[in-house]
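Deviation from plan, reported transparently: MV4 complex.
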Amino acid sequence: MIRSLLIANRGEIAVRIVRAARELGIRSVAVYSEPDRLAPHVLEADAAYRLGPASSSQSYLSVERLLGVARAAGVEAVHPGYGFLAERAHFAAAVRDAGLVFVGPTPETIQAMGDKTEARRRMRDAGVPIVPGLVDPVADADAALAAAEEIGYPVLLKAAAGGGGKGMRVVVEPEELPRSFDAARREALAAFGDGSVYLERYLDRPRHVEIQILGDTQGHVVHLGERECSIQRRHQKLVEECPSPALTPELRAAMGQAAARAGEAVGYVGAGTVEFLYQDGAFFFLEMNTRIQVEHPVTELVTGLDLVAWQLRIASGEALSFTQEDVTLKGHAIECRITSEDPYRGFLPSTGTVTHLQVPSGPGVRWDGGIQAGFEVSLHYDPLLAKLIVYAPTRGAAIARMARALDELVVRGVDTSAPFHRRVMDEPDFRQGALSIRYVEEHPDLLNGGGDEEVLRAAAVAAALLEDEDRQRHRTPRITASQGPGSTTPSAWRRGGRPWTDA
Ligand code: MV4
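Because the crystal trials were delayed, the predicted structure below was used instead.
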């Protein structure tokens, strides 16, 4: 087993990796930028080294500084987490060339999966269903027109170097294709330094369902079930769950086998995710993510496997100790990404000091956090503060548990996405599992709430006056605790929920 590990990341995922390392007896070394010097990942690791000032390029993205710390601290391995350098083949190669173990797949696998047309060619050859369309970039608008004629409109122009939705353009009819082609090209060039563009048939209302895989250095690949990630906004996932309410056992097995084949086709080592679009009973390969993902905990809770521990075991050369038949999904898990964004102002980033933090707990509740009271939230990094994850025997019980946990959560000092999540838990389509990647745009009321402090204060005063009037009319006590179903207590004001009364 590797004995020491540099964690080239920050926030909740760095804390998560420290925890796994500690349980395996691996010494963890954190790194930090100036404003993160007292962040939880720094305090919880066995050692911590300063990288530089706040800017990512001079801290968490600096390969030179990270390798300098690795050398100074004498670690054997480097875990990249997600984001930052996690899917940069040159970083994986630099770690390897420095004589260290990179916790993840080979630079070759990362490189191949980063090129979306290369990934599509590899998947097609491995018998994994891909979205109908091209597997090579098109040279010009005329070639794109000819291809679109074959594929059938609407088509989607995509950047070959892409991911994350940049350089994507939906084209409904041939007349608009030349302009969209130029726009996609320009955007791809600006975002990735590579203007290559290709075409796929456009799916208009798919779900985003992804499969977790694990591969060891002995060549075994297993799949660990799916995650339903359809609830997103502008390519930022908001809620994830396992299992997906859309899949039958047959579909799950077919999608899982396709994902394992995908992993085998690229010699996958470590934890990875195969993304699919699912629509009208059919699924299509979208992308392979060569990293641990934010939403890995829902898979952990439903499979009982510690994915970060398995990343570290695999990086140490250990073989998977279980086979596909040993993997079973039990119960239901849901994750909400708690970000420093105001859902009632278009998810506008919110900054400031977290003055008070009350973390939910109790049965089936997990908090993977990267903040503490006193922590200052800035605009330098990703707005993810923490993940709230719940586990229960059924989807319905998990939804109730998440609503309860969100009611317990108090974050003061910065606005968070939590009120949005709380509303989702009550929303009928979500409760029925009727989801697609358009869920948020199709439910605009989830984003129209809150209002400003003054309106809230006025509403609270009006509520108190009403309650007082009510109390005088019914001669009921002022303190009106919930008394359960059948209670006729006229009022029970509480945070985040309806009063439990029949009145
Ligand atoms: C698609 C698609 C519909 N049809 N491909 C968005 C980011 C990139 N990773 C792939 N994406 C999509 N590809 C075809 N042929 C719709 C999307 C898409 C999407 C996919 C997954 C999760 C969220 C999304 C939000 C908007 C569009």
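The pocket of MV4 is lined by residues 131, 156, 163-165, 200-203, 206, 208, 232, 235, 277, 286-287, 437 (CB under 6 Å). We consider this an acceptable substitute for the interim report.
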